[in-house]
Amino acid sequence: MHVATTGGLGPRTVTALCHLVEHTASLGGTLVIATDADQAGDHHAARIEDVVAPIVVTIERLRADGQAKDWNDVLVRSGTS
Question: Using CA atoms, how far apart are residues 65 and 36, in angstroms rounded to an integer?
Fold first, then answer.
């Protein structure tokens, strides 16, 4: 499962995200936060972590790597997009 926040965390997005993370936690899963490789992406990842902090779940943080700014750029550079 996945949820795309597209950089925003409005009230309904927070509710949906928390429900998904609660379900993921109940299955022993991991929340993977994949954001842009810049300060804004880091800030957004930190906001998501703050939102889900009350839910006991393993969190893995992924940043687009190399010279890529975002995950779309990673796909384009790899030839899979």
Answer: 9
| Contacts by residues 41-46 (CB-CB < 8 Å, ≥ 24 positions apart) | 41/70, 44/5, 44/7, 44/9
Whole-model pTM? 0.80
8 Å CB contact between 77 and 44? no
Express as a percent the part of the chain with pLDDT over 70.
96
DSSP the chain: -----TT---HHHHHHHHHHHHHHHHTT-EEEEEE-SSHHHHHHHHHHHHHHTTS--EEEEEE--TT-SSHHHHHHHHT--
Helices 11-26, 39-52: axis angle to 10 degrees equals 70
